[in-house]
Design a protein that fits this description.
This protein is an alpha+beta fold. Helices cover 39% and strands 17% of the residues.
């Protein structure tokens, strides 16, 4: 797993849960003791935007779930079957990228000013330069406040969408425009079963980790679902999964895929042993 931000941390924790609770039921040919989950982060700590106490807690919770965490580890190249980390080769059967992505090419295709990731640079009204009637929101928008970029995650995207709708209404009514301001309510990241971190900034300031942060994360996500029926169904499904370790989805794969997976694991183990010698 490459990337120690919220995406990488949550994905590494989810894979750990799958390896502990699902492999023995759904993938009986894969030996759990041979599964290694490794998380690489190029910066000195995980969840760099979070307070330091929460990043330490996140790393500890991941290690308790069996995830090997390596910080200050920059992935320099990715090839079939291996990757290069700090000039060292690391064999891997499955590689997942969670260290950021390029933005949609739409902004550049339209000839708008973009940053190095392809995000459209917008002003305080979420308009690209010279286009007062065009709004760019979400992770395609490069918005800065007080010299810092507004993160491209769900919370600011929702606020940008609301702002754009209100601004269009003000324009139609002949009212003057207001500037966009991001109201940071805090950040949460789920790590695994009973494991999470929460940096709350509204309605009060608090740093939570572990079980209470996990409960808070679940409640917040259910709250923002649309409609009472959806909230109730998700709560029932989560409760069923929590108590019975059951999943509604299953993967059907052929025996050849499973055999190939085990052979690849054995080959990687031989390569590591040879390199050690």
């Amino acid at each position: 797993m490459v990337g120690g931000g919220p995406t990488g941390v949550e994905l590494a924790g989810a894979i750990s849960d799958i390896s502990q609770y699902m492999l023995k039921e759904d993938f009986r040919h894969i030996k759990r003791e041979k599964v290694r989950i490794i998380l690489y982060e190029g910066l000195p700590r995980l969840l760099n935007a979070y307070p330091e106490d929460l990043t330490k807690s996140a790393e500890e919770q991941l290690k308790n779930l069996g995830v090997e965490v390596y910080t200050n580890s920059k992935v320099e190249d990715v090839q079939p079957g291996y990757l290069i980390v700090n000039k060292q080769r690391v064999d891997a059967v499955v590689m997942l990228w969670g260290a950021g992505v390029q933005a949609s090419p739409l902004g550049k295709a339209l000839g708008l000013a973009v940053d190095n990731k392809g995000c459209v640079i917008v002003d305080e009204f979420l308009n690209p330069a010279g286009y007062r009637n065009v709004f760019v929101v979400g992770d395609l928008a490069h918005v800065e406040e007080n010299g810092k970029r507004v993160p491209g995650v769900a919370q600011p995207a929702m606020q940008m969408g609301d702002f754009a709708a209100r601004t269009i209404g003000d324009d139609l009514a002949g009212r003057s425009r207001k500037k966009f301001h991001y109201f940071d309510k805090g950040d949460m990241a789920t790590i695994g079963r009973h494991a999470a971190v929460a940096n709350l900034k509204w309605p009060f300031h608090a740093h939570w980790s572990g079980f209470f942060a996990w409960i808070a994360w679940a409640l917040v996500h259910v709250y923002f679902l649309i409609g009472f029926r959806n909230r109730l169904l998700v709560l029932l499904q989560w409760a069923w999964t929590y108590f019975f370790f059951s999943r509604s989805a299953r993967l059907i794969t052929g025996d050849q895929n499973l055999i190939g997976w085990n052979e690849a694991v054995e080959e990687n183990e031989k390569a590591r042993s040879t390199a050690a010698v």
